[in-house]
Amino acid sequence: MLPLSVNGAGDAIAALFLFHRLKSGSASAALAAAASSIYGLLRRTSEAASREILTVAAQEEFVAPSRVFLAEGC
To answer: For the whole prediction, is pTM greater than 0.90?
Structure first.
């Protein structure tokens, strides 16, 4: 968990999930990719102590996330 409270995180994860779902066709792959990107984006936002999500400053997290999460089946 990251120590931050920002507006728009839900919209960002929804957009990332939809993008990756359409690209991969796999819900689990889309979830893993979206979680990895959103974590990096929010981590960078937290480090900057910003209330605004740093979409442009952390744009490399969309292409090459700094931490990769894998989705596991239940």
So the answer is: no
